[in-house]
């Protein structure tokens, strides 16, 4: 089971710790000596329930999830979150407001929040875009004073994508009361930065994210929801309000009630997340993770800044630069191609930018070590010195 690993900076699905994968590989074939692997047992067996509960426990401990919030898993990835969030929170708003159809506020700060807003709109929800940075190439997050005010009387939630994986911006501060009305819930897509830093969960109505970047494999989506947001009208009431009934596979109350086993949860994928979160806890928990992620990103940005005009960091404002996805360009396609091919010769891989923006993207998720980042930095220095 040994492998010769490159230093992989891919944006996702991303690298996982090799000791976790080795353990998982064994558990895929024969879990705890029962003669069957974790992909082969019923999702409601005691063994499977223990896997779900252990994974949940580790996750809650790492992120310090308060009792006011519930953690559950669904299939479907981040994209399914675009619709599940809108369906469920519109239903909850209707429950609290005599069947009223909610407005949904979206901050469009990159291609993922843009997709989320468009999906909610496509499904017929009443979307209000409060900021849209498309014209500036999604390269900054303006201050809240420049966002359109939220209609506090009719809005269920403000949706943000905490870390824009393609464009390289990240929210470093949660919108405070000066912008976000008290009765409007904050919803965040944390698909690409969940468990990469401390988060005050109590400030959010809902957080969700696919597992495949920082915490595991594709196939599992993590949701953290304020318990008071789980109440919904009956299907009959929803129909009488003229509102869409939530598809059952996306129905949050059913998922919570069934401890994430309303339908078949990928138990093996859940187990990988259990192993990853156990390792993170053993290595010092969220404080240690955040410290290491800050260190990795600071080192990389500082190195790129040494060569202005040769390396161009897409996000000029350091206050909103992503710690997870460092996006930069070189001055021509040819030089970029050479950068990628010489990097690959040094076993520095996964560095090509997203197809929509090009350039270079170094993703520094939890499993990327400081040592790998130091090697990348050495290469960046050498390449600039040789070519600028
Ligand atoms: N949201 C963010 C921030 C992402 O980075 C991604 C994928 O990279 C998605 C949503 C979509 O995730 P999925 O492909 O799991 O649907």
Automatic annotation (TrEMBL):
The keyword Kinase does not apply. The keyword Transferase applies. GO terms for cellular component: cytoplasm. Its EC number is 2.6.1.52. This is Phosphoserine aminotransferase. Coiled coil: none annotated. NCBIfam families: PRK05355.1, serC_1. Keywords: Amino-acid biosynthesis, Aminotransferase, Pyridoxal phosphate, Serine biosynthesis, Transferase. It comes from Pichia sorbitophila (strain ATCC MYA-4447 / BCRC 22081 / CBS 7064 / NBRC 10061 / NRRL Y-12695). Its cofactor is pyridoxal 5'-phosphate. Belongs to the class-V pyridoxal-phosphate-dependent aminotransferase family. SerC subfamily. SUPFAM superfamilies: PLP-dependent transferases (SSF53383). It catalyses: 4-(phosphooxy)-L-threonine + 2-oxoglutarate = (R)-3-hydroxy-2-oxo-4-phosphooxybutanoate + L-glutamate; O-phospho-L-serine + 2-oxoglutarate = 3-phosphooxypyruvate + L-glutamate. GO terms for molecular function: O-phospho-L-serine:2-oxoglutarate aminotransferase activity; pyridoxal phosphate binding. One of its GO terms (biological process) is L-serine biosynthetic process. Pathway: Amino-acid biosynthesis; L-serine biosynthesis; L-serine from 3-phospho-D-glycerate: step 2/3. Residues 9-376 form the Aminotransferase class V domain.
């Amino acid at each position: 089971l040994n492998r010769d690993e490159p230093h992989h900076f891919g944006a996702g699905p991303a690298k996982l710790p090799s000791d976790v994968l080795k353990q998982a590989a064994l558990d895929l074939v024969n879990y705890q000596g029962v003669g069957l692997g974790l992909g082969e047992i019923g999702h409601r067996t005691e063994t499977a329930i223990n896997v779900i509960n252990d994974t949940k426990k580790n996750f809650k401990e790492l992120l310090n999830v308060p009792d006011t919030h519930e953690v559950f898993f669904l299939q479907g990835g981040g994209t399914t979150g675009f619709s599940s969030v809108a369906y469920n929170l519109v239903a909850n708003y209707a429950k609290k407001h005599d069947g009223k159809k909610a407005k949904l506020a979206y901050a469009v700060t990159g291609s993922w929040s843009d997709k989320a807003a468009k999906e909610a709109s496509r499904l017929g929800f009443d979307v209000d875009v409060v900021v849209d940075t498309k014209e500036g190439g999604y390269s900054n997050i303006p201050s809240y004073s420049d966002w359109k005010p939220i209609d506090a009387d009719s809005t269920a939630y403000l949706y943000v994508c905490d870390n824009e994986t393609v464009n390289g911006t990240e929210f470093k501060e949660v919108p405070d009361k000066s912008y976000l009305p008290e009765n409007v819930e904050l919803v965040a897509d944390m698909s690409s930065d969940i468990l990469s830093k401390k988060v005050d969960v109590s400030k959010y109505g809902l957080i969700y994210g696919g597992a495949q970047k920082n915490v595991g494999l594709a196939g599992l989506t993590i949701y953290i929801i304020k318990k008071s947001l789980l109440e919904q009208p009956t299907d009959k009431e929803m129909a009488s309000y003229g509102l869409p009934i939530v598809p059952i596979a996306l129905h949050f109350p059913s998922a919570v009630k069934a401890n994430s086993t309303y339908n078949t949860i990928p138990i093996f994928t859940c187990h990988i997340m259990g192993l990853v979160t156990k390792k993170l806890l053993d290595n010092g928990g969220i404080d240690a993770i955040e410290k290491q992620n800050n260190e990795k990103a600071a080192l990389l940005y500082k190195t790129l800044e040494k060569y202005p005009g040769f390396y161009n960091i897409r996000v000029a404002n350091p206050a909103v630069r992503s710690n997870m996805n460092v996006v930069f360009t070189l001055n021509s396609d040819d030089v970029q191609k050479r950068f990628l091919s010489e990097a690959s010769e040094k076993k520095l891989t996964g560095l090509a930018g997203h197809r929509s923006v090009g350039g270079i993207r170094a993703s520094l998720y939890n499993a990327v070590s400081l040592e790998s980042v130091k090697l990348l930095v050495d290469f960046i220095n050498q390449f600039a010195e040789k070519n600028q």
